[in-house]
Amino acid sequence: MGNLIPGPETVPFFGNALIALGKTPDDLIQYCLVQQAKYGSVVRGWLGSKLVIFLADAQDVEVILNSPIHIDKAPEYNFFKPWLGEGLLISSGNKWRSHRKMIAPTFHINILKSFIGVFNQNSKKVVEKLRSEVGKTFDVHDYMSTATVDILLETAMGITRKTQNESGFDYAMAVMKMCDIIHQRHYKFWLRFDPIFKLTSFFKEQKRLLSIIHGLTNKVIKSKKETYFENKSKGFIPPTLDELTSQTEISIADKNILANQAKTLSDTVFKGYRDDLDYNDEQDVGEKKRLAFLDLMIESAQNGSQQLTDNEIKEEVDTIMFEGHDTTAAGSSFVLCLLGIYHDVQAKVYNELYNIFGDSDRPVTFADTLEMKYLERVILETLRLYPPVPAIARQLNRDVKIASKDYVLPKGATVVIGTYAIHRSPKYYKDPNTFNPDNFLPENASCRHYYSYVPFSAGPRSCVGRKYALLKLKILLSTILRSYKCISDIPESKFKLKGDIILKRSDGFQLRIVPRERVPLKTV
Ligand code: HEM
C-alpha cells in the first residue's frame, strides 16, 4: 500500500534512509520541500521498513487531526521520553484523555486574564533589559526565551519572582540543545537505536542537559509543594478564580468581559478546529473554583479523584515548561525580525498601539488586547510563514482513506503533517511566500479551508496553550514596540532556517533597536 503512494526512489534494505547522510537539518527541510513540489501533497518515504507519509493538503490534514482515533503520536516522539516522560505531548489512551481534561481548563480565558499583570511586569522587564542593546546588533531570541521562561514560571507554575532565584536562560539554552539532539535522532537513522546512541557523545551531552532541565523543574515542584503544605497547615485553602483575579491588578472592565464576548480574530480563524478550548471557555466561571496549572496538579495529587503521582506531576511540568516557552520565544523573535524588515507594517502596528495607548506608559489591559487587531494579524501571518512547530507526526492505528487523492494510508505508518509546507501552498495563499498580514483579514481568512492554517495543530489534540500564547504575545510584543523601533538588516530571503523540533534561524535572530518617539507615524 505504501508503494502505491509516490515518493523518491528507494535502495534495498535502507529505503530512503540514506538521504540523511551528510545532510544538515537545514538541507533536509529544503530536500523535503523539493520532494513535495515534485510528488505532490502526499509523499511517501521508507526509513528501512518503516513507512513515513508526508501530507500537505488541508482536506487530508483534517481527516487525521480532526479524528478522535488517530491521536497517538508517532514513535519518533519517544526520543522525548527521557525528558518529558509520558506528559501530555506524548501520552496516549486514557492517560492522555484524563490529563487533557484536567489541564486544558487551567488555560481558561478567565485564568488567562488573571495572568495579565505578570505578562505586563515581565514585558516591562524585557524593555528595561533591552536598553543595553540600543544601537547594537544582537540576537533577540536570547531575550525572548528568558522572558518566556520567567513568565511561565510566574503564571502556569505560580512561582513568584521572589522565589525564582535564577534566570531561565540556562534552562532555555539546555532545551534548545536537547531539541537538537532529538532532531538528529529523527533523521540520522543509526542514532535511532538506543545501544548505538548510548555509545555516542550525544548521550553524554543529553545527560548533562537533562540535569539542567530537570534541575529547574524539580526545584519548581519542590517550592510549590512546600508552599502548599505550609498553607494547608495554616488552614489556607487555594484561592478561587475570583480571589485569584482580585489579587492581581485585573481591571473591572476586564473582569466584566465575559468569555463569550472576548472573541478575537484568532477565535474566528481557529473556529473550525473543533477543539476543547472554546468549549471550556464557554463554560463560564460562575462559582466554580478554577486553579492555575501547577496549583491544580498539586491539589489533585492531594485531594483529587485522580490521585496524580509525583512522577506524573513532573512529566506535565516538564511538558508545559517546554511547549510553553520555546514556541512563543521563536514566534515572538520571528515577529520582531519581520517587523524590522517591513517598516511599513511596523508603522501600522505602532499606529494601532498609539491609538490605544497614546504616549502613555500604562500597562496593557485585556480590553486593549481585543483592540490590537492589526498586531494580531501580524502574529498570525508570522506563525503562517514561520510556524514554530513546523511538522507534527501521528502513528496510524488503522488504515485511513484520505480525502484529496485515492490512497489508503496503511495502519502502522507514521503520518507527518507538514505545517510549514501547507502554510506556503499556493492552493491556499496567493503569493504564499510573501509576508502579508492581510491574509488574515476576516474576508480572506473566511474563504480558506480551516486546516490550511494549523500552527497550533487542530482537533482533539490541538495545543492547549493557544489562547495563552496569543494573549502573551500581544502583551509582550506591544510593550516592546511601544518603546522601540526594530530594524533588521537581513532580508527574509537570507534567513537560514533551522528545521529543528522548533523552527529557528541558524543565523540567529539579529536585530537592532532604537528608542521610539511616541508620535503617530506616516504609513503608505
Ligand atoms: C506560539 C506558540 C505555540 C505554538 C505555535 C504551539 C504549537 C503546538 C502544536 C503544533 C502542538 C501539537 C504538537 C504535536 O501534535 O506534536 C502543541 C501541543 C501542545 N502545546 Fe503548544 N504551542 C504554542 C504554545 C504553547 C503554550 C504557551 C503552551 C502552554 C503553556 C503549550 C502547551 C502545549 C501542550 C501541553 C501540547 C500537547 C497537547 C496534547 O497533546 O494534548 N503550547 N502546541
From TrEMBL:
Gene3D superfamilies, per the entry: Cytochrome P450
GO MF terms, alphabetically ordered: heme binding; iron ion binding; monooxygenase activity; oxidoreductase activity, acting on paired donors, with incorporation or reduction of molecular oxygen
Organism ancestry: Eukaryota, Metazoa, Ecdysozoa, Arthropoda, Hexapoda
Sequence positions that bind heme: 463
Protein name as annotated: Cytochrome P450
The protein's required cofactors: heme
Record family assignment: Belongs to the cytochrome P450 family.
Keywords tagged on the record: Heme, Iron, Metal-binding, Monooxygenase, Oxidoreductase
Family matches, as InterPro entries: Cyt_P450, Cyt_P450_CS, Cyt_P450_E_grp-I, Cyt_P450_sf, Cytochrome_P450_Monoox
